[in-house]
Amino acid sequence: MGLNCGIVGLPNVGKSTLFKAVTAAPAEAANYPFCTIEPNVGIVNVTDDRLDKITHFIKPQKTIPTIVEFVDIAGLVKGASKGEGLGNQFLGHIRQVNAIVHVVRCFDDENVVHVHGKIDPVDDITTINYELALADLEIVEKKLLAIPKVLKGQNKDQQKHAKIQQPILERLKDHLEKGERGFSLGLEEDDLAAIADLNLITLKPVLYLCNVDEDAVNEGNEYTKLVFDHVEAEGSQAVIICGKLEAEISLLETEEEKKEFLEAVGIEKSGLQTLTKIAYDLLGLRTYFTAGEKEVRAWTFSAGSKAPQAAGVIHTDFERGFIKAEVYHCDDLFSLGSEQKVKEAGKLRIEGKEYVVKDGDIVHFRFNV
Questions:
Q1: pLDDT band, very low/low/confident/very high, at 270 (cuts 50, 70, 90)
Q2: pLDDT number for residue 303
Q3: DSSP character for 182?
Q4: What is the mean pLDDT of the chain?
Q5: Within 13 Å and on the Cβ side, how many CA atoms surround 364?
Q6: Burial (CB count within 10 angstroms: exposed 0-12, middle 13-18, buried 19+), residue 53
Q7: Cβ(312)–Cβ(319) under 8 Å?
Q8: Beta strands in 179-337 (DSSP E)
């Protein structure tokens, strides 16, 4: 399991610049709409101080962090859901991600044109959300039109599923027709599971990213205040980032240089670190570790997972043949100084199938296939 985010927004808000900065991948950045013709995909290692601390005590041959996948998608415009600009082909790419990072322009720069001719971040947000709602509305309407045929068919399982889906889709249709995100409808988990096969864009969690200039990176500005007020009312989250600074950070070769740069500009963490942390929380993701002489590795799992399901993140055989899990928390390693001392202190436990894995656990799975 990994974190997969699609970066969306209007043209010229800084999506591709941000993508290049956080992934060091060769996305083209230019001062005109649609410079990104195909979705660029970048894989980024997730910085986790705990992983570094574990390697200090375990001394592995190699260290493997968990990853985030970023997909940079071409700028959307009004009418994208009807084929304007680059249209539906890019909306299709958004359906494949499990979270959306919506980049909003919150800076003035007369050298970078705005597709609407003025800086209005709330209007930009409304434009993108409306197009995504219309794109989902088309999917919902097609599904509703197909349901009567399914109900007249012979397949009892399909009939049962269609009867469950129909009232949910009708509620969604009314909501999407108003240009509202499906996420804001507050569907129950069972309802979401019933329509999961539609992979609706507006049901995905959204993190709004305010792209600012260097002067606003710490305190924000009038534009970011408008965004934060808007997304709070929507029930979403926003974060401030400076694409230009992130681009400069990405050019530095060592972690020490990056740390010194952040200190010099008065930033505690890079935008990527902040973005990743919030995105993990949005999706209810956590991290456990496996640790030994060969490797120390971080693994991403869903909060609330029991030991067999967490083991399945490594390999399906681990889940299928799960026997037990040897578990202790990384904090015990940090405080006691070695795995042997963790054992002597009685902190290492043998857990069964009902154990709920915790963020920061160090686990060794026993399995038999």
A1: confident
A2: 94
A3: G
A4: 86
A5: 11
A6: middle
A7: yes
A8: 206-211, 237-241, 285-291, 295-302, 322-329
pLDDT band with cut points at 50, 70 and 90 for residue 93: confident
- Give the sign of the dihedral formed by CA 231, CA 233, CA 235, CA 237: positive
Q: How confident is the model at residue 76 (pLDDT cuts 50, 70, 90)?
A: low
User: Rounded to an integer, what is the distance from CA 179 to the centroid of its chain?
Assistant: 23
pLDDT at 253: 79
Strand ranges of the sheet holding 67-72, from the earlier edge strand across to the other edge: 40-45, 67-72, 3-8, 99-105, 206-211, 237-241
Query: Regarding beta strands 67-72 and 40-45, do their DSSP bridges make them parallel or antiparallel, or are they unpaired?
Result: antiparallel
Retrieve residue 34's tokens.
């649609």
Compute CA 213 distance to the chain's CA centroid, rounded to the nearest angstrom. Answer: 24
Give the E-state strand segments of 204-360 in sequence order: 206-211, 237-241, 285-291, 295-302, 322-329, 349-351
Sign of the dihedral through C-alpha 146, 152, 158, 163: positive
Q: Write down the residue that tokens 């400069």 correspond to.
A: 248
CB 117 within 8 A of CB 65: no
Q: What is the largest CA-CA distance in the chain?
A: 69
Q: Could you read off the pLDDT of 14-66 as tens digits, one per residue?
A: 887 887 777 765 445 444 443 444 557 777 788 889 999 999 999 999 999 98
Helix 156-177 × helix 121-151 angle, to 10°: 150
Region 278-304: mean pLDDT is 92
- In the chain, the amino acid numbered 315 is H
**Helices 255-265 and 243-251, packing angle to 10 deg:** 150
Cα dist from 348 to 179, 331, 341, 361, whole Å: 52, 12, 10, 10
What pLDDT does 35 receive? 43
The pTM is what? 0.81
Determine how many CB atoms are found less than 10 A away from the CB of residue 110: 5
